[in-house]
């Protein structure tokens, strides 16, 4: 008798479950593609970020990733200032007066967990355009509203300076990506930026769009193809190096 009761309970449970599954399927098929995609896990590329500087999490909507950073990179530069363990001499750099440790470098950005690649492109603007894996900001090809050329002499060996806000990269950040396929960071549209080479082929990609982007596998996509940017393999102006990113964003 007891066993029969259990059996009936089980049958009711199975029946209820099958109804629930059916209605879920209906809901999924009517979801429009313009809605932001809910994710439950951070993209694997975020595991490459400097955990001393950054705190990265999915927000309560499940559609955005929040990146909080102290802005302080985990590599050497003249901009740490004498006395800091990561300070190095760079006699050729016309150092801007600010000392990194006295500035407030903290930045928080919120990006799409799944970039929207179907809309219009959006121009980059002056200020933080992304966060690098080191924890510091990425800027575009502008310096205080003008071209970068005039400020080029103040850039350190890794293409960065303080100007006078946060420490930021304009050029290929050689401290962690030097003519290779390393992850550089994530931009404000949620699209990842890689070095000049692509892990899919081991060489410079030849199918890049105007933003330096294309779709292929990367070392963080587990065999899946995904749209991403590369630092474009063309020496920029008088800098002797390569621009990190000029835009436009494709993922807004
Ligand atoms: Zn700058
Ligand atoms: Zn690529």
Please supply descriptive tags for the structure shown above.
1 helix; three-stranded antiparallel beta sheet; single chain; binds zinc ion; eight-stranded mixed beta sheet; alpha+beta; 252 residues
Question: Could you give the topology of this structure?
Answer:
Blueprint: H1 2-30, E1 54-58, E2 64-69, E3 107-112, E4 130-132, E5 137-138, E6 142-143, E7 146-147, E8 160-162, E9 167-169, E10 183-187, E11 192-194, E12 213-216, E13 226-230
The structure holds zinc ion (2 copies).
- The number of distinct β-strands equals 13
Portion in beta strands = 15-25%
Instruction: Give the N-to-C terminal Cα separation.
Output: 62 Å
Low-confidence stretches: 16-32
Name the hetero compounds present: zinc ion
Order of helices and strands: HEEEEEEEEEEEEE
Rg over CA atoms, rounded to whole Å, is 23 Å
Enumerate how many helices there are, as a single number. 1
């Amino acid at each position: 008798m007891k066993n029969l009761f259990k059996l009936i309970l089980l049958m009711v449970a199975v029946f209820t479950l099958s109804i629930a599954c059916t209605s879920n399927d209906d809901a999924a098929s009517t979801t429009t593609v313009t809605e932001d995609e809910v994710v439950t896990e951070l993209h694997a590329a975020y595991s490459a970020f400097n955990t001393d500087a950054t705190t990265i999490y999915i927000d309560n909507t499940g559609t955005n990733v929040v990146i909080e950073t102290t802005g302080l990179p985990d590599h050497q530069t003249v901009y740490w200032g004498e006395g800091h363990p990561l300070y190095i001499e760079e006699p050729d750099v016309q150092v801007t007066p600010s000392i990194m440790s006295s500035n407030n470098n903290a930045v928080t950005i919120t990006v799409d967990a799944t970039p929207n690649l179907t809309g219009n492109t959006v121009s980059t603007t002056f200020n933080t355009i992304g966060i690098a894996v080191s924890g510091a900001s990425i800027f575009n090809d502008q310096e205080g509203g003008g071209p970068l050329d005039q400020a080029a002499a103040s850039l350190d060996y890794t293409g960065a300076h303080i100007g006078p806000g946060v420490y930021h990269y304009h050029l290929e950040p050689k401290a962690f990506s030097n003519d290779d396929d390393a992850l550089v960071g994530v931009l404000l549209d949620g699209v990842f930026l890689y070095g000049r080479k692509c892990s899919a082929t081991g060489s410079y990609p030849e199918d890049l769009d105007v933003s330096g982007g294309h779709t292929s596998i990367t070392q963080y996509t587990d065999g899946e193809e995904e749209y991403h940017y590369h630092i474009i393999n063309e020496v920029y102006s008088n800098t002797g190096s390569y621009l990190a990113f000029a835009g436009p964003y494709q993922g807004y």
